[in-house]
Write a structure and sequence with these properties.
- With 59 residues, the chain is mostly helical.
- The chain is elongated.
Length: 59
């Protein structure tokens, strides 16, 4: 059984990971870099890239 402290640690770690991913995606700024990102993402399923896709739609 997961304790409250463990759930909080898990949630904090997940938020930290999402922020890091958002920073990494934001580094793709030029049209050429965005094309590179699109090509990378195109090699994966929609399920695999769902989180990245959501971040891209936000920004």
């Amino acid at each position: 059984m997961e304790t409250t402290a463990q759930r909080i640690r898990t949630a904090v770690a997940a938020r930290k990971a999402r922020r890091q991913l958002a920073r990494e995606i934001a580094a793709y700024r030029t049209p050429a870099e965005r094309l590179e990102l699109d090509l990378i993402l195109g090699r994966h399923t929609e399920e695999e890239i769902a989180e990245i896709d959501a971040l891209l739609r936000k920004g």
